[in-house]
Amino acid sequence: MIFEGLSDKLQNTFSKLRSKGKLTEKDVKDAMREVKLALLEADVNFKVVKDFIKKVQERCVGQEVMKSLTPGQHVIKIVNEELTALMGDVQSKIMISSKPPTVIMMVGLQGAGKTTTAGKLGGYFKKQGKKPLLVACDVYRPAAIKQLQVVGEKLDIPVFAMGDKENPVNIAKAGLSHAQKNGNDMVIIDTAGRLHVDEVLMEELKNIKSEVRPHEILLTVDAMTGQDAVNVAESFNDALGIDGVVLTKLDGDTRGGAALSIRAVTKKPIKFIGMGEKLEDLEPFHPDRMASRILG
Ligand code: GDP
Predict the structure, then answer these.
(1) Is 70 known to sit in a ligand binding site?
(2) What is the spatial distance between Cα 51 and Cα 82, in angstroms, rounded to a whole number?
(3) How much distance in Å is there from the Cα of 219 to the middle of ligand 1?
(4) pLDDT tens across 7-42, in order?
(5) Per UniProt, where does GTP bind (predicted)?
(6) Is 205 annotated as a binding residue?
């Protein structure tokens, strides 16, 4: 389970705090040292941890907490609030364009779960009464187009494809006109991924972006890759500019550091989380719920 190790450690620290009547500054400092270690062990970015602990500590040695009758409880409340803030406070939704179709461009490295997530998002919006169109622009990975078509069939969502000989920019543009003609109010473009961030890929994505002008560029990253996921998010954001992140494979045995670091490092919100391989395993990301899950 995600955050299991982190949750256990934090609960242990907090139960010690709760058992005390009044708290001294040393009690708070000791507790913060344990929280810091727990976050680092959960693979949270070092600088993010440092800033987080500083903020929490400042608030915890304040008058309000020290004088409180239940200081331990107060500290937990502050940690909960700061964890929530770290992940962006409130849920970040997809901007729906007032002039349909809303165009979402999916980007990410190979294997992160981009094609699966494109399908999942289509299914998510279809359930909300939208008429999505999936557009197959990954002309490099063998079978990527077929994979999207299979996903589309399962969800009963149309897929626009032009094979793997056409330029992805042309496919994206043609897909958009197809949507306009056919009354699709949501266009989800599946772009190519690579094994690593490279310039050729970024150039292609920039071309699609400037020609198609998507309302949202959503980056899919794999939570299992920990801080690599955070570095990938930073690279894509610097090179292309992203609007949000879909963090996949949170159902796996991940320590969860990416979930807690991405927003603070990139300033871009996590919008959805992938919780499994099935096409319905996609959830909107709620920072407050995730913080409560961590604190148990
Ligand atoms: P792409 O190369 O980025 O398009 O990646 P794919 O969509 O082909 O996904 C790569 C693998 O990750 C596939 O086996 C997916 O089933 C799997 N996958 C995608 N999202 C999730 C998720 O949220 N949880 C789990 N457990 N597996 C996922």
Answers:
(1) no
(2) 11
(3) 13
(4) 999 999 999 988 887 888 899 999 999 999 999 999
(5) 108-115, 190-194, 248-251
(6) no
